[in-house]
C-alpha cells in the first residue's frame, strides 16, 4: 500500500504551526516514515509543487492577494485540506484590525511607498475554499496534531472537540479566574485542547484556540459586566485571536455604545 502524499504550506503567518510539527522530535521520524512528504518548503528541498496530494496542511490567514491564488491551487490538488492554527481556522490575530482600512494600516507600518504589498483584510481559509478539518491553536498542540495524523493514517476523520477550556479547568481543579479574580477569561467560550494551560498557571484564558461551536456571547459579556469589567476591556480581550468569530455584530455595537 502506498504512503499518503502530504503537503504542508504557509500563507500569511508566523510559521509557528509548521515549527510545532518540526518540534514533534521523536515522533517526527515515525511520521516521516508513515507518509510521503512531497511539498514542504520550510523543511525540505526539491519539492514537488504540482503533484496531487492526499492531505494538505495549511497554516496562516488569507491576508494578501497572492494567498488566495496559492490557497486555491493547494485546494485543487488535494483530497483533504486541513486548516492548522487559529489564523487559518478563524483569521487569528491578523484579523483583529479588519475594521481599519488597509491603506491606513499599511501607511502607518511601511510609510508612503507600499505598492509592493497587495494586502487585504485577513480572513480564514474557509472564506475562500472548502476546508475538510480544522485544527486550531496558537500554535497547534503537538498531541492533537499527532492524534489527527494517526486518524488520517487509519482512514478515519479525526474527532472534533466541542467542549470548552472551562471543562479542562474543572478537571484540574483550577481556581476560576472570573469568579475569584474578576478577570476577563475566555475559557467558557474557547474550544478545549490545550489542557487549560494558561489558567493552570494563574493566567486568564485569551481564547487562542477559537470559539466552541455554540457560544453564548451575550451571557458571557453580561457576566463580565456584572463583575465590574468595562465593555471596552471585554471587547479587546474577546477579539484577540478570533476577531471575525468571537462576537456578533449586534452585541459588539451594544457594548461599544455602553462604553461611550
Q: Kindly, what is the distance between the CA atoms of the first and last residues, rounded to a whole number of angstroms?
A: 64 Å
Helical fraction:
40-55%
Q: Low-confidence runs (pLDDT<50, min 5 residues)?
A: none
Order of adjacent strands in the largest pleated sheet: 2-1-3-5-7
Radius of gyration: 20 Å
**Shape, per Cα inertia axes:** globular
Q: What is the top-level CATH class of the largest domain?
A: Alpha Beta
What sequence of helices (H) and strands (E) makes up the elements? EHHEEEHEHHEEHHHHHHHH
Query: Strand percentage, roughly?
Result: 5-15%
Number of domains in the coordinates? 2
Mean pLDDT: 89
- The structural class is alpha/beta
Query: How many E-type strands?
Result: 7
CATH-derived architecture of the largest domain: 3-Layer(aba) Sandwich
Biggest beta sheet attributes: 5 strands, parallel
Q: What is the CATH T-level topology of the largest domain? A: Rossmann fold
CATH H level, superfamily name of the largest domain = NADH:ubiquinone oxidoreductase-like, 20kDa subunit
Tally of contiguous helical segments = 13
Amino acid at each position: 500500500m502506498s504512503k499518503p502524499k502530504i503537503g504542508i504550506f504557509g500563507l500569511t503567518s508566523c510559521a509557528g504551526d509548521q515549527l510545532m510539527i518540526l518540534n514533534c522530535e521523536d515522533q517526527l521520524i515515525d511520521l516521516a516514515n508513515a507518509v510521503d512528504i512531497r511539498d514542504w518548503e520550510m523543511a525540505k528541498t526539491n519539492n514537488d509543487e504540482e503533484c496531487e496530494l492526499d492531505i494538505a496542511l495549511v497554516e496562516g490567514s488569507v491576508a494578501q492577494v497572492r494567498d488566495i491564488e496559492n490557497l486555491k491551487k493547494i485546494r485543487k490538488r488535494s483530497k483533504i485540506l486541513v486548516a492548522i492554527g487559529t489564523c487559518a481556522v478563524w483569521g487569528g490575530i491578523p484579523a483583529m484590525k479588519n475594521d481599519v482600512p488597509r491603506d491606513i494600516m499599511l501607511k502607518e507600518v511601511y510609510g508612503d511607498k507600499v505598492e509592493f504589498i497587495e494586502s487585504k483584510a485577513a480572513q480564514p481559509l474557509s472564506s475562500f475554499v472548502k476546508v475538510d478539518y480544522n485544527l486550531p491553536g496558537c500554535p497547534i498542540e503537538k498531541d492533537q496534531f499527532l492524534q489527527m495524523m494517526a486518524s488520517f493514517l487509519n482512514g478515519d476523520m479525526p474527532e472534533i472537540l466541542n467542549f470548552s477550556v472551562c471543562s479542562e479547568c474543572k478537571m484540574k481543579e483550577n481556581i476560576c479566574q472570573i469568579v475569584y479574580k474578576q478577570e476577563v477569561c475566555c475559557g467558557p467560550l474557547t474550544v478545549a485542547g490545550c489542557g487549560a494551560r494558561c489558567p493552570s498557571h494563574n493566567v486568564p484564558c485569551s481564547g487562542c484556540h477559537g470559539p466552541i461551536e455554540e457560544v453564548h456571547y451575550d451571557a458571557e459579556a453580561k457576566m463580565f459586566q456584572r463583575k465590574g469589567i468595562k465593555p471596552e476591556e471585554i471587547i479587546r480581550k474577546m477579539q484577540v485571536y478570533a476577531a471575525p468569530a468571537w462576537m456578533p455584530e449586534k452585541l459588539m455595537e451594544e457594548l461599544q455604545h455602553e462604553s461611550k
